[in-house]
């Protein structure tokens, strides 16, 4: 390989990194708009928040379903990546579990309109629930195991059951301002502690 090839390779990598960051910024913007306006929000609003033209959105995501799926997957990945990071930064595994569950609750409560979209006939939606479980149940299990090994919580807790219980506590929270799902989930997580 000559120097010209090497130089061309170096130029291509930053462009790919920039494109990846731009796509992630677009997904973050779309996710924020979906929270406030639902998944049927105008593409021009998403483009304005992301600081791009609508053509850029359509280039990455030709249909609204493509965009919704990508936002959902992006947010699942962010939640999955947060678990190990919290174990490194929080003072105790139980604290890391509590912070991660807070993120999980935010993820569930802010899925304004997503449930309806997921019930559509679009084939891409079929695998999202399995993807959600495949990515997040092991993260929750790792947090539970760490807290159990530290002697902070009972050792017989199942990650899927806990996530299902948290999910059930979050149902309808976005539509009822008197219902504080985060408070109830906080009580649930506090109740996991082993008695002194």
From TrEMBL:
Q: List the PROSITE patterns hit by this protein, alphabetically.
A: HTH_TETR_2 (PS50977)
| Residues in the DNA-binding region annotation | 42-61
Q: Which SUPFAM superfamilies match?
A: Homeodomain-like (SSF46689), Tetracyclin repressor-like, C-terminal domain (SSF48498)
Q: List keywords of the entry alphabetically.
A: DNA-binding, Transcription, Transcription regulation
**All copies of domain HTH tetR-type, residue ranges:** 20-79
Gene Ontology MF terms in the entry: DNA-binding transcription factor activity; transcription cis-regulatory region binding
Stated name of the protein: AcrR family transcriptional regulator
Q: What organism is listed for this UniProt entry?
A: Saccharothrix tamanrassetensis
């Amino acid at each position: 390989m000559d120097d010209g090839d090497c130089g061309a390779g170096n130029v291509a990598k930053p462009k790919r990194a920039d494109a990846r960051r731009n796509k992630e910024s677009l997904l973050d913007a779309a996710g924020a708009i979906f929270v406030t306006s639902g998944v049927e929000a105008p593409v021009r609003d998403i483009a304005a928040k992301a600081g791009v033209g609508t053509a850029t959105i359509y280039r990455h995501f030709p249909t609204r379903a493509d965009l919704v799926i990508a936002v959902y997957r992006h947010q699942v990945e962010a939640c999955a990546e947060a678990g190990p990071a919290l174990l490194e930064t929080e003072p105790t595994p139980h604290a890391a579990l509590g912070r991660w569950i807070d993120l999980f609750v935010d993820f569930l409560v802010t899925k304004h309109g997503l449930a309806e979209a997921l019930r559509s006939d679009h084939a891409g939606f079929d695998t999202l629930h399995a993807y959600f479980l495949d990515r997040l149940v092991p993260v929750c299990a790792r947090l539970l195991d760490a807290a159990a090994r530290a002697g902070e919580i009972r050792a017989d807790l199942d990650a899927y059951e806990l996530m299902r219980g948290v999910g059930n506590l979050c149902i309808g929270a976005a539509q009822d301002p008197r219902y504080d799902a985060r408070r109830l989930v906080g009580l649930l997580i506090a109740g996991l502690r082993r008695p002194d």
